[in-house]
Amino acid sequence: MVKDRGLGAVPRGVWALGLVSLLMDTSSEMIHALLPVFLVTSLGASALTLGLIEGVAEATASITKVFSGWLSDRLGKRKLLTVAGYGLAALTKPLFAIAGTPGMVAAARFADRVGKGVRGAPRDALVADITEPGARGAAFGLRQSLDTIGAFLGPALAIALMALLGGNIRHVFAWAVVPAILCVLVLIFGVREPPRVGTGRPQAPIAWRELRGLGTPFWWVVAVGSVFTLARFSEAFLVLRAQSVGLAIGLVPVVMIVMNLVYAGVSSPAGRLSDRIDRRWLLAAGMATLIVADAVLAGLGTIGGALFGAALWGLHMGLTQGLLSALVADAAPARLRGTAFGLFNLASGVALLIASALAGWLWTAFGPADTFIAGAAFAALALSGVLATPRKVSGEEPAGRPQAGEEGGDG
Questions:
Q1: How many Cα atoms within 13 Å fall on the side-chain side of residue 343?
Q2: What's the predicted TM-score (pTM) here?
Q3: Among 260, 355, 268, which Cα is nearest to 315's?
Q4: Which residue among 119, 126, 357, 364 is buried most deeply as judged by most CB within 10 Å?
Q5: 3-state secondary structure at position 318
């Protein structure tokens, strides 16, 4: 067992990257907390259209991460790509305020998610680069926790602005530009990249010899993460569920506040705990929590049930999302870390596209309950995969840890 050094072991650069995530998520969630209702009620989109927009947007982000992760390995310039990604996302925010059709919203979401894709893998690889291996769980958990604080500040601001601006959703979207600009400024002036040397070789983004070099533990994380993502479709359906059981449009962001409050509170402690125990057991606990959340959302057709289900959804996110990033960092060789994060996010993004499209179809054809029941089934499948794993996932080991396969080793 490794002694828990707490947040004191997390470098200042990770705190800064966490603040960057907080500000961008505040901006994004001011929009996303209202976007499903805006699409369905104001622009006349169907639940299937919503699922396709969300799925395609997230898949786009994940595909882009493959190339940005690979490029960050080659150039050794992770911060440059991270700034470019956050900058593009900031530029897209005004587009939501002027969108007049679902197609315009889809275009804005597409551009925004390209920005997310450009920044995602280099940023996660940068966190791993500047953090000691024994503190990675704490570092990823902290960054995820700060990110999630922004994810509930955004909906809270959306509710306040809806009240102040007479329920004008477009005006709320316009105000989302402010934290996005602040995010880019903090990144430029507050984050320092450690010196690295890129290979400079003009290879293909995904070379077969690099895929072989990533190893079995990494591909296990990809497989489990992909199946799990099939169960974790877009949170936009949580917002629609709250509206479907009677929550007023001006208050639907409360669902995201509840979810993200729990998410933020759990992420950092869960990350620190994962540095001390086998990470698989926390992952299994998160998957079991998602099954319960889906059951609540399917079975309780009340506002209280929707909020309780959202809280459980946030609990499962806090137990799993930073942990999955730490597992990727553990399993991937340092020289291929950006590529590894890109490939992991690619697989997860394709799964999220399928999951969101399927959720939209189930919602339209059969109703909300069947949508969440299907999610629970996929979560159970992912959980069975984790429980059936005969050995702990391990790649690069920190000092003082047993190697993979030894009794007492960490995941």
A1: 26
A2: 0.66
A3: 260
A4: 119
A5: helix
Residue 186 contacts by C-beta under 8 Å, 6 or more apart in sequence? Answer: 16, 19, 20, 23
Q: How far apart are CA 218 and CA 226, in angstroms?
A: 12
What does the domain layout of the chain look like in residue ranges? 6-192+209-387
3-state secondary structure at position 366: coil
Question: What tokens were used for 335?
Answer: 């020289």
Give the residue among 290, 367, 316 at the shortest CA–CA distance from 359: 367
Query: Could you tell me the fold of the domain covering 6-192+209-387?
Result: Growth Hormone; Chain: A; (1.20.1250)
Residue 392: how many CA atoms within 13 Å on its side-chain side?
23
Q: How many CB atoms lie within 10 A of CB 77?
A: 15
| Residue 407: how many other CB atoms lie within 10 Å | 6
Dig out the tokens for 393 from the structure.
């996932």
Per-residue pLDDT of the chain (411 residues; tens, 9 = 90+): 444 455 566 778 888 888 998 999 999 989 988 888 888 888 888 878 887 887 787 777 777 766 777 777 777 778 888 899 999 999 999 999 998 888 898 889 889 988 988 887 788 888 877 777 777 777 877 787 788 788 778 888 998 999 899 889 999 999 999 999 999 999 999 888 776 544 445 444 455 556 666 777 788 888 888 888 888 877 778 888 888 888 887 788 888 888 888 887 887 788 778 777 777 788 888 899 999 999 999 988 788 888 999 999 989 888 887 777 778 877 777 777 777 777 887 788 788 888 888 888 888 888 888 889 988 998 898 888 777 765 555 444 433 333 333 333 333
Question: Within its chain, how far is the Cα of 11 from the centroid?
Answer: 22
Cα 151 to chain centroid distance, Å, stands at: 11
Quote the CA–CA distance of 256 and 242 in Å, as a whole number: 10
Q: Under DSSP, is residue 38 helix (H, G, I), strand (E, B) or coil?
A: helix
Cα(330)–Cα(353) distance, rounded to whole angstroms?
26
Cα–Cα distance, 147 to 124 (Å, whole number): 13
H helix runs in 130-191, sequence order: 136-164, 169-175, 177-190
Q: Using an 8 Å Cβ cutoff, are 28 and 183 in contact?
A: no
CA distance 138 to 276: 10
